[in-house]
Design a protein that fits this description.
The complex is a heterodimer of chains A (about 450) and B (about 270). Chain A is built from 14 helices and 22 strands. Chain A has about 450 residues and is of the alpha/beta class. In chain A, β9, α6 and β10 form a beta-alpha-beta unit. In chain A, α3 runs parallel beside α8, α5 runs parallel beside α6 and α11 crosses α14. Chain B has about 270 residues and is of the alpha/beta class. Chain B is about 40% helix and about 20% strand. In chain B, α1 packs across α2 and α2 crosses α8. Chain B is globular. The chains are: A alpha/beta (about 450), B alpha/beta (about 270). At the A-B interface, α1, α2, β4, α5 and α6 of A face α1, α2, β2, α4 and α6 of B. β16 of chain A pairs parallel with β2 of chain B.
Chain lengths: ~450, ~270
């Protein structure tokens, strides 16, 4: 028996517990061999495993990686009939979009107005060999989908404002661990329990700034049932491509709006995996790193603490931490995804910047105002975050006024005002009702809100 | 290969740990590796393929970074929720959750009872050192009354949880408790948990020590003294049944039901 003094921390447990009194302190702990009767009690009780009964040369097991390179774009066969028209609600379309994108794990918690997504997933998942679970809260739902994602399955949850607040900590975890997953936030009137059955867009800044650490998120805002389906597929593709959580922001009205959905063939992106490549950033060119799963035998070290490319926790090295943060930020904004709808922008002197259902409503007001000769256009943001700064900058010089109608106290307004030098006006309406197109039209014509 | 020194070389990424001198978690690590090795020899466990999930705190650091296996080091208290996701998405995998009492039974108490209720196959080890070690020794839901901590300078007044009662109350299908001062019993307990964890949720409370934050403030001035005190406090279920437990010591072993547990401790 010997003590490896490079491991020993001299806690003294072995000394006190040795019945033979064979361990003494003399410039580090030492075993008096003559007294030791090899009972080996000290071996088990040494917290550092420093007591060596027999030193055998052992080679560390190298991970056996059998998996091959995988991932990339594939043509996916839709689950619903291609070309067929369906009559679905926004929530149902989101669920179907997710399934079409390859989502096979759903964890959620009931909340108005998002519960229909949960209910549809509960029925659809088992038929597709996927997994569904109703967790004990939204914190657990978010945790479960991150776990499932690392098990190699595309995963999603759906909630509303209060639940989205609870998810923020684990969204940060997903940011740090570069975990692809999708979160649908069916926004309702807040704060707190607020008006659970009424629409609002009060969480758009929470989608961008709600979590700790404050890194970039991708958030999409559908404006119709068709877009609920299409943008959910897009959300999964972005999430897998950028290896980041992606948030879909709908609202209580769109969730329960039932209209036509036409199914088209879709391309689906699956996360890239290259054997033995580091599973975390920083990477060259700020691309998303290779993503293994637990079955690949890579001996993963996944941690929310600051870490290096292999996952070794490193919470004291400011230089490598900064590199990691730059990687996480830049992998989204260097090649930022852009998706906007431009409506009568060519000659517009006034531009309405809107997202979600308000964007669709504003279109009606613009059509009416155009008939009266008003040079007004619409920039509708389908991808809200990251904000498409380059696009809006193009119109900055020739546009006299940007108008931002929102179903909150003016959240995107501040972002637009920050990006453009022209005049920016906020049109807030937070009363649990949709903004009436007549009200926007009246503002365009008379300037009264 | 049964000696700990070699097992640590085989199963740990690095042998040198960041735990304080005398930390009980090192003793748990020894016992876990020994149990794992014995099961591997029988072909009933594959350490390197196992998915170890932990939360936040000292205990959570045992698997990540030290265990050379698949490890997921999650947010505080949520290890079991992550584990539920992994298990459902990949049902063939072996899941072992190793975390502390603060993580699993205090901030994560809700996830604990629901995971046990749900009874998905996984092995859960709750390493109980009675305080929040990593943040400086604050009290948790398991801290005994009258314990001196940085936020209870006159002694903790809140009544603590008995985690075994909590787990049995949540209808856990396998519940056991082992103190680290009886390592041979602990090894047997870990083996049993790892095997039963293939079929259902297996929960083991491992009674550990925190000499740095608990001991120093509560007249247990060395790790050895803490272990001696632990030895005095606990009695095995077998002995408790034989002797009727006259000194009303805490009982360790496997517990089938709340009734059995109450009978042993009344």
């Amino acid at each position: 028996m010997e003590i490896d003094n490079s491991l020993c921390k001299e806690c003294g447990i072995c000394m006190e517990f040795c019945q033979q009194k064979a361990i003494v302190k003399n410039d580090g702990l030492k075993i008096i061999q003559e007294k030791c009767n090899s009972c080996r009690q000290c071996e088990l009780l040494c917290p550092e495993g420093a007591i060596c009964f027999k030193n055998e040369e052992i080679e560390k097991i190298k991970s056996k990686i059998k998996s091959e390179k995988r991932g990339g774009w594939i043509n996916s066969k839709p689950l619903l009939k291609t070309g067929q028209k369906y009559f679905l609600s926004g929530n149902d379309a989101c669920a179907e979009g997710a399934l079409a994108a390859g989502c096979r794990f759903f964890a959620g918690y009931p909340i108005t107005p998002a519960s229909e997504i949960l209910e549809r997933m509960a029925i659809r998942m088992p038929k597709l060999n996927g997994s569904f679970i109703q967790m004990e809260d939204e914190i657990a739902s978010m945790a479960a989908i991150i776990g499932a994602s690392w098990a190699g399955v595309k995963s999603m949850t759906a909630t509303s404002g209060p639940g989205f607040s609870l998810m923020q900590e684990n969204i940060s975890f997903a940011d740090m661990t570069e975990t692809p997953c999708v979160i649908i936030n069916v926004q309702r009137g807040g704060p707190s329990t607020g008006m659970p059955t009424k629409p609002s867009t009060g969480d758009i800044r929470m989608a961008r700034w709600g979590d700790h650490g404050g890194l970039q998120h991708i958030a999409l805002c559908p404006a119709s049932v068709q877009e609920c389906y299409d943008l959910t597929i897009k959300a999964f593709n972005l999430s897998e491509k950028y290896r980041t959580p992606v948030i879909i922001l709908t609202d209580a009205f769109l969730a329960h709006l039932t209209e036509t959905l036409i199914i088209k063939p879709q391309k689906v992106f699956n996360r890239i995996y290259i054997p033995n490549e580091p599973p975390f950033g920083p990477t060259k060119n700020y691309s998303a790193p290779s993503m293994p799963n637990f079955a690949d035998g890579e001996h993963l070290m996944i941690t929310g603490s600051a870490h290096d490319e292999r996952g070794w926790r490193n919470t004291a090295d400011s230089e490598s931490y900064e590199k990691l943060i730059h990687h996480l930020e830049n992998k989204i904004i260097k090649k930022r995804p852009i998706d906007v709808e431009k409506f009568f922008l060519e000659d517009a002197k006034q531009i309405i910047v809107a997202y979600g259902l308000v964007g669709r409503i504003a279109k009606e007001a613009i059509k009416k105002a155009r008939k009266k000769g008003e040079k007004i256009g619409l920039l509708r943001l389908k991808i809200l975050w990251p904000f498409p700064t380059e696009i809006i900058k193009k119109y900055e010089k020739r546009c006299a006024k940007f108008i931002v109608p929102e179903m909150n106290q003016g959240q995107l307004f501040f972002v637009v005002r920050e990006k453009v030098s022209a005049k920016v006006v906020s049109l807030p309406q937070q009363d649990g009702e949709l903004i009436n197109p007549e009200r926007i039209y009246k503002y365009i014509m008379k300037g009264i809100w | 290969m049964t000696n700990i020194y070699s097992l640590r070389k085989k199963y740990l990424r690095i042998e040198k740990t960041t735990f304080c001198a005398g930390c009980g978690y090192g003793i748990f690590t020894n016992c876990f590796l020994k149990a794992a090795e014995e099961l591997e020899k029988e072909g009933k466990f594959d350490f390197h393929k196992t998915i170890f999930i932990s939360g936040i705190g000292c205990a959570a650091w045992i698997p990540n970074p030290y265990f050379l296996a698949e490890t997921l080091h999650t947010t505080h208290g949520r290890a079991l929720a992550f584990a539920t996701g992994v298990k459902l998405a990949k049902p063939a995998s072996k899941i072992v959750v190793i975390s502390g009492d603060g993580d699993l039974a205090t901030i994560g108490g809700n996830h604990l009872i629901h995971t046990l209720r749900r009874n998905l196959p996984m092995s859960i080890f709750c390493l109980n050192n009675y305080v929040y070690g990593m943040t400086g020794g604050q009290p948790g839901a398991t801290t005994p009354q009258k314990t001196i901590t940085p936020v209870t300078p006159e002694g903790s007044i809140e009544k603590p949880f008995d985690i075994i009662k909590l787990a049995l109350g949540a209808e856990a299908k396998f519940v056991s408790r082992y103190p680290i001062v009886f390592p041979k019993n602990l090894i047997k307990g870990i083996k049993k948990n790892l095997l039963i964890g293939n079929e259902k949720s297996a929960f083991t409370e491992v009674i550990s020590i925190c000499p740095t934050h608990f001991g120093r403030k509560n007249n247990l001035t060395s790790p050895a003294k803490m272990l001696e005190a632990q030895k005095e406090q606990y009695i095995s279920k077998k002995k408790a049944l034989e002797t009727q437990n006259p000194e009303q010591k805490k009982v360790f072993g496997d517990f089938e039901s709340l009734d059995e547990y109450f009978n042993l401790t009344k």
